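User: Structure please.
Assistant: Input sequence and predicted structure:
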Amino acid sequence: MKPESWAPHVTVAAIVERDGRFLVVEEHTDDGLRLNQPAGHLEAGETLVEAVIRETLEETAHPFTPHALVGVYMTHFARPAREGVTYVRFTYCGGSGEPEAGRALDPDIVRTLWMSADELRACPERHRTPLVMQCIDDYLAGRRIPLDFVHTHSVGPPRPVSTQK
């Protein structure tokens, strides 16, 4: 592997809790149906906060308002016969409104669910990654980092934020 060809994938995830239950998605993956927080990749020109707002809306139809950063997580997946993949995940917690009526979810999303931490702990084999529970546990432990901890320095005009699919 050439050092100049490697780059980590930057992802974002949202933790939304209501009455002791967490908003999760059931999604199609290469390993079958899995549970995950609403999550996805940072797109060119976005801030991390813009990305988590967009991804949560696209995957759940729920508008999301980030309140704090819960943590930054790095995972490396080794893949036989090819280069491994590294993900750097920024997980935010916050509130959400009611789902937008009639809004289609991303194609890989089967449905949204509200699950308790105990229900999630009871089915680790269904989690997309071990980060699903790690992020919930960190949230429940009270980990909160102010949103202004991560600085974005833009070059050029700001990119308009789109909530339309």
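Residues 3-147 form a domain with the Nucleoside Triphosphate Pyrophosphohydrolase fold (CATH 3.90.79.10).
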